[in-house]
Amino acid sequence: MSSYSDLDRQIDKLRRCELITEDQVQQLCIMARDILMEEGNVHSLSSPITICGDIHGQFYDLMELFEIGGDVPHRQYLFLGDYVDRGFYSVETFLLLLALKVRFPDRIMLIRGNHESRQITQVYGFYDECLRKYGSAHVWHLCTDVFDYLPLGALIDNRVLCVHGGLSPSLHTIDGIRVIDRKVEVPHQGPMCDLLWSDPEGSLDHWGVSPRGAGFLFGSKAVDEFTSQNDIAMICRAHQLVMEGFKWHFNKRVLTIWSAPNYCYRCGNVASLFEFRGLDATPRYQFKMFNEAPAETRGNPARPAAPDYFL
């Protein structure tokens, strides 16, 4: 079992965007699973808390996020999933967040996104990156096993439900989320899939077919019914690129947060953090906007090796 000093050294190394050893990854994943296993499908949290959207392997922008929002454990954070894929540093990004979770389990909360999936990560980069950086798929297997233990949501002050994607026509209550067997690969359909894949759609009242091929589009009346039945004030989610960093839907009952600036290193969007301080007579919150990390702070990403047929 790693000591706190061992963990601190690993965190320092990961903060420099340097890899830890495969044995250290294995031990870290075992400790993380033990912690996550004790967290329910919908983990209860209290404000004040800073909520973050998709990161997608943009490591240096994650460092910018902590610079803007304050560091763990001095700030409490909730990350809404999609830590990996598309960016150059999915391995370092996910391992750093996991190490912070193990070191400060009550100060950082990680929930599952639709990219925390074996099938998706084999298509969008994380699998190939693990193979390239560690020489085998072992680290990918270790990390994807941890994905299965990530909670599906969080409930802040019993008033704000946080999920990665959105609602499901199969789920009418938060208690319905609590009884899902989450320790599986993300299914292609059903309530767990919907929580990770669904999107709000302003032109709808209730439900529509999602162009993503998974999850649903949900409208204003679906949100009305769910928030009323569960006595919550709003739903906070990520999952969709927002050029302005955040977007309100349905008269501020649904909020999309996006925390990957200049997504895919080409989209030109800003990113945001949602600092939530509570719901008294009126909601208390602020958004902190940030751009991609300055070019001089970025390393040179490791490029994939040339395929054999070019050699």
Could you explain the architecture of this structure?
GO terms for molecular function: metal ion binding; protein serine/threonine phosphatase activity. This is Serine/threonine-protein phosphatase. It is an enzyme of class 3 (hydrolase). The protein has ten helices and 14 strands. By secondary structure, it is an alpha/beta fold. The protein has one domain: Metallo-dependent phosphatases (Purple Acid Phosphatase, chain A, domain 2). The strands form three sheets. Strands 1-5-6-10-12-11 form a six-stranded mixed β-sheet. Helix 1 runs antiparallel to helix 4, helix 2 packs across helix 4 and helix 2 packs parallel to helix 7. The longest helix has 16 residues. The protein is globular. The termini are far apart.
Low-confidence stretches: 304-311
Strands of the biggest beta sheet: in what spatial order? Answer: 1-5-6-10-12-11
The number of distinct β-strands equals 14
Using the alpha-carbon principal axes, give the shape: globular
Write the CATH architecture name: 4-Layer Sandwich
Q: Write down the secondary-structure element order.
A: HHEEHEHEHHHEEHHEEEHEEEEE
The CATH topology is Purple Acid Phosphatase, chain A, domain 2
Could you give a short account of the major beta sheet?
6 strands, mixed
Helix fraction?
A: 25-40%
From the alpha carbons, calculate the radius of gyration and give it in angstroms: 19 Å
What is the structural class? Answer: alpha/beta
What is the residue-averaged pLDDT? 94
CATH class: Alpha Beta
Strand content: 15-25%
Number of domains: 1
What distance separates the N and C termini? 44 Å
- Looking at this structure, what is the CATH superfamily? Metallo-dependent phosphatases
Give the count of helical stretches: 10
GO molecular function, one term: protein serine/threonine phosphatase activity
Keywords: Hydrolase, Manganese, Metal-binding, Protein phosphatase
Organism: Salpingoeca rosetta (strain ATCC 50818 / BSB-021)
Pfam families: Metallophos (PF00149)
